[in-house]
Design brief:
Radius of gyration: 20 Å
Oligomer: single chain
Order of helices and strands: EHEHEHEHEHEHEHHEEEEEEEHH
Number of domains: 2
Largest sheet: 8 strands, mixed
Distance between the termini: 43 Å
CATH superfamily of the largest domain: Dihydrodipicolinate Reductase, domain 2
């Protein structure tokens, strides 16, 4: 039986991940931790979790717990990974894996020394929508893939304009960057899953609005080891009426177009026209990946998102932002 301890009770745990731990076979969330007074207790009572604490050490050293889920901002991922690994606990950490590639390597090394597995919450690797993209690619329906184009345009969030209470996701010392690091990490990691490692990447960044200390515009060019080329543009100061989440995979015989962050259908263009494909969107988006983690921990399967694969994504983001 996999017994989870969760560090952090933020928004991501309310629906995307937290409830899934008790819905997966042979899995149970037994304790939660948060430093904010009353928050862990409130979370535990609302979600039916037996234990709660304000002290991470109490949770990490709890003998009933054998896996630690780190759901805190990236600046504490390396620290909690180190503490959990030293207690012999397996680790499942939120994305991005860490603030930068160097910290990722430290996390991999400490887990290697402790002989504990390290998984990262790049859950799109297991979601039906993106597995369908992989199925289409593997079928050869659009021929040989030539190029990938990513376009993400979002308006500012109200909290982005409050300089006195900025969200942690736009504070580089905590997040490792801004919304590019938070959102593009999902996209770049999935491309790694679909096409293999990105060999090289470069980019440019801008601070056009001055709303917060992180970049608000990023452009990038990248090349995969297999020769596929990619380009991306990420703008986080667009207009409300012009939001765009569009990725195109261009092949020699067609094209796949899809969004990353909503359940809209895939569009597959071939000589026969455009086919729109709907796929299930899980109630708890991390549940399919958590199922893979549990299966791997029980020796019954393989998880597609590990510290090694996730570190590659941090490496690419560092290259783009440098």
């Amino acid at each position: 039986m996999i017994k989870w301890g969760m560090i952090g009770c933020g928004d991501v745990t309310e629906k995307k991940s937290g409830p899934a731990f008790n819905k997966v076979k042979d899995s149970e969330l037994v304790a939660v931790m948060c430093r904010t007074p009353g928050r862990a207790e409130d979370y535990a009572r609302r979600h039916g979790i037996p234990k709660w604490t304000m002290d991470a050490e109490n949770l990490i050293t709890d003998p009933e717990i054998n896996v630690i889920y780190i759901a805190t901002p990236p600046d504490s991922h390396a620290y909690y990974t180190d503490q959990a690994a030293k207690q012999g606990k397996a680790i499942y950490v939120e994305k991005p894996m860490a603030k930068n590639y160097a910290e990722c390597l430290e996390m991999i090394e400490v887990c290697k020394k402790a002989s504990v597995p390290l998984f990262v919450a790049y859950y799109r690797r297991c979601m039906p929508k993106f597995l369908k993209v992989k199925e289409i690619l593997d079928s050869g329906l659009i021929g040989t893939v030539r190029a990938i184009i990513i376009s993400l345009v979002l308006p500012p969030r109200p909290q982005d304009l409050n300089s006195d209470h900025l969200p942690w996701r736009v504070i580089p010392e905590i997040a490792g960057g801004g919304y590019f690091v938070d959102l593009a990490s999902h996209q770049l990691d999935l491309l790694d899953f679909l096409f293999g490692p990105i060999q090289e990447a470069s980019g440019d960044k801008a601070f056009q609005t001055g709303w917060y200390p992180a970049e608000d515009l990023v452009s990038a060019h990248f090349r995969f080891e297999n020769g596929i080329l990619g380009d991306g543009m990420w703008c986080f100061s667009g207009a409300d009426f012009h939001q765009q989440d569009r990725t195109e995979i261009i092949g020699s015989e067609g094209k796949i177009t899809f969004s990353f962050f909503d359940p809209s259908p895939l569009e597959v263009l071939t000589p026969n026209g455009v086919n729109k494909i709907n796929t299930p969107w899980p109630e708890h988006v991390q549940q399919p990946l958590i199922e893979c983690v549990v299966s791997a921990l029980l020796g019954k399967g393989i998880c597609p998102s590990t510290g090694v694969s996730a570190a590659r994504t941090n490496h690419i983001m560092d290259s783009i932002l440098s």
